[in-house]
C-alpha cells in the first residue's frame, strides 16, 4: 500500500491536501479586493461627512455674526445712516479745506469750480422751493413762518456767552425756582437789532395789506365794497366771455 502511494507521488499526481490549499488562496483574493473597496468607500463617505460638518459650522458662525450685526443695527437710531453719511461728508470737507489751506487756495473758489452749471441751477431751484412765500393762509401758519424766519437769523455770540457764564456761573441756567423778571438787561446792539427787524416787519406787512388806490374814472357797477370785490373776481374769470354781452347792454343793442 505504501509502495503504491509512493509510486503515485513519483508520477506527479497531487494528493488531496495540495489541491485544497490552492483553491482557498484563489477564493481569498476576491474577498480582499472587496474589503479594500469597502474601506475606500467608507473613507470617501467620512471625508464628505467631515466636509459637510465644516460647512455647517461655517454657516452657523456666519449666521451668528449676521444676527449680531442685525441686532446692532436695530438698536441704532432711525436716521443713523443719514447721520453717518453726513459725518463722513463733513470729514471730507474738512480734509479738503486743509489741503486747500496748505496749497494757499480758497476752498470756496475750488468748490465752485467743481460744481457744474446744471447742479448749481438745480440747487438754486431747490433753495427757492425750500421756503416759498405763499402768502397768508391762517394765523398758525403765519406764526410758524415768523418763528422759523427769526430763528434762522439768530447768530449766537460765543464770546458774550462765555463772559456771562463766568459772571453768573450756575445762575445762568435757570430752573423752576429762578426769578428771571427784571434780571436781564439787553445790550444796545440787541435793541438796535430788534428795532431794525420790527421795521422790516412793518414794511413787509404794509406791502401785503396795502389798500388799492381808488380810481375816480372807473365805472361804478357795485353797491358796496363787498360787491365791488365780487365783481372784480367775476370779471377776472369770466370777463373775456361776457365782454360782448356787456357792451350790447350798455349800447342798448342787446337782443
TrEMBL record:
What is the documented function of this protein? Involved in pre-mRNA splicing as component of the spliceosome.
Q: Where in the cell is it found?
A: Nucleus
Q: Which GO terms describe its biological process?
A: mRNA splicing, via spliceosome
- Family note: Belongs to the SYF2 family.
Keyword Nucleus among UniProt keywords: yes
Keyword set for this entry? mRNA processing, mRNA splicing, Nucleus, Spliceosome
* Segments for region (Disordered): 1-42
Pfam families reported in the protein's UniProt record: SYF2
Question: Does the keyword field hold Membrane?
Answer: no
Q: Quaternary state and partners of this protein? A: May be part of a spliceosome complex.
A GO CC term attached to the entry? Prp19 complex
State where composition is biased (Gly residues): 9-22
Source taxon at top rank: Eukaryota
**Record's protein name:** Pre-mRNA-splicing factor SYF2
Amino acid at each position: 500500500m505504501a509502495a503504491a502511494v509512493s509510486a503515485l507521488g513519483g508520477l506527479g499526481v497531487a494528493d488531496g491536501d495540495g489541491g485544497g490549499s490552492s483553491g482557498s488562496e484563489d477564493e481569498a483574493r476576491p474577498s480582499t479586493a472587496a474589503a479594500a473597496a469597502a474601506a475606500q468607500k467608507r473613507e470617501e463617505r467620512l471625508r464628505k461627512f467631515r466636509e459637510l460638518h465644516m460647512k455647517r459650522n461655517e454657516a452657523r458662525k456666519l449666521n451668528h455674526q449676521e444676527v449680531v450685526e442685525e441686532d446692532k443695527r436695530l438698536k441704532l437710531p432711525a436716521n443713523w445712516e443719514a447721520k453717518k453719511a453726513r459725518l463722513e461728508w463733513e470729514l471730507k470737507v474738512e480734509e479738503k479745506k486743509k489741503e486747500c489751506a496748505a496749497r494757499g487756495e480758497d476752498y470756496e473758489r475750488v468748490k465752485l469750480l467743481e460744481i457744474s452749471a446744471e447742479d448749481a441751477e438745480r440747487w438754486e431751484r431747490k433753495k427757492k422751493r425750500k421756503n416759498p412765500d405763499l402768502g397768508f393762509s391762517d394765523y398758525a401758519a403765519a406764526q410758524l413762518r415768523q418763528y422759523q424766519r427769526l430763528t434762522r437769523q439768530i447768530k449766537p455770540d460765543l464770546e458774550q456767552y462765555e463772559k456771562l457764564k463766568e459772571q453768573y456761573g450756575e445762575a445762568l441756567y435757570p430752573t423752576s425756582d429762578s426769578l428771571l423778571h427784571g434780571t436781564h438787561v439787553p445790550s444796545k446792539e440787541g435793541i438796535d437789532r430788534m428795532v431794525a427787524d420790527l421795521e422790516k416787519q412793518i414794511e413787509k406787512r404794509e406791502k401785503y395789506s396795502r389798500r388799492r388806490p381808488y380810481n375816480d374814472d372807473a365805472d361804478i357797477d357795485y353797491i358796496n365794497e363787498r360787491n365791488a370785490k365780487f365783481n372784480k373776481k367775476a370779471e377776472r374769470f369770466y370777463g373775456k366771455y361776457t365782454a360782448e354781452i356787456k357792451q350790447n347792454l350798455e349800447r342798448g343793442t342787446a337782443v
